[in-house]
Design a protein that fits this description.
Blueprint (H helix, E strand, L loop, with lengths): L1 E5 L13 H8 L4 E5 L13 E2 L9 E2 L1 H9 L7 E12 L2 H10 L2 E6 L7 H6 L3 E4 L9 H12 L9 H5 L18 E2 L2 E2 L9 H19 L1 H10 L1
Helix pairs in contact: 3-5, 7-8
Length: about 230
């Protein structure tokens, strides 16, 4: 998987992309990341990437020319998506990450700033819009990092035990079950006896029931969706 990130702040990605499992995956070439600054594609002496909106209004918009030029400079694979991270996009779900990890070779992610981007970028360049949720951040780099992280962890070789991916929250429309480690008794709070029983059938049944109960209590909309599919 190859990522091209269109960003005004390439340094934003330096530490996160060199840390933890994602850093190891990039070091092993499971995925590659290319950072592209739109300022490098401006034609004026001030390297201007933003301007005031037509019709008035507060704030500035990212101009279309540097973004189009930055994207069009990239070598393209056969299976790619050009993604704009924006509050107006489709809410990010686990199924979207799985689709991107499975069906695409190249993800080009445009990081917005200020009041957003010129609408022509959205209409004539972008192929998919994704949102982290119903809130606004100061920059598109944060959701871009989220996308990279969520996709790369699904690629073969990133996570040691593939089975652990299937047991995660949202894989079956249910939240994950409670998990414990040693000590068995911490400040009087004990690990449930069933988990110490060695009876794997009972443990599996307990875990499934805990998933159902936890989802019903915390995310009733997910629980209803699970009920409809089961």
């Amino acid at each position: 998987m190859h990522f091209d990130i269109i960003t005004l702040f390439p340094d934003f990605f330096t530490s996160p992309l060199n840390s933890s499992l994602i850093g190891k995956a990039l070091a092993k070439k499971i995925a590659t990341v290319n950072l592209v600054n739109p300022r490098d594609f401006t034609t004026d002496k001030h390297r201007k990437v933003d301007d005031i909106p037509y019709g008035g209004g507060v704030g500035m918009l990212l101009k279309p020319e540097p973004i189009f030029a930055a994207v069009e400079s990239l070598p393209m694979t056969l299976r790619y998506e050009i993604i704009l991270v924006t509050p107006q996009g489709q809410p990010l779900k686990q199924q979207i990450l799985e689709d991107l990890a499975t069906n695409y070779q190249q993800l080009i992610i445009i990081c917005g700033h200020y009041e957003g981007v010129d609408e022509r970028v959205r209409q004539h360049l972008v192929t998919r819009e994704i949102s982290l949720g119903d809130f606004v951040l100061t920059c598109g780099e944060i959701p871009a990092l989220t996308l990279i992280n969520g996709v790369v962890r699904l690629l073969p070789g990133t996570v040691g035990k593939v089975a652990s991916l299937k047991a995660e929250s949202f894989e079956t429309d249910l939240l994950d079950y409670p998990q414990y480690t040693r000590p068995a008794n911490f400040r009087g709070w004990e690990v449930p006896e069933v988990l110490r029983s060695g009876n794997h059938k009972l443990i599996d049944e307990w875990r499934k029931q805990e998933q159902i109960t936890r989802t019903r209590d915390r995310r009733p909309e997910l629980w209803e969706k699970w009920q409809q599919n089961n």
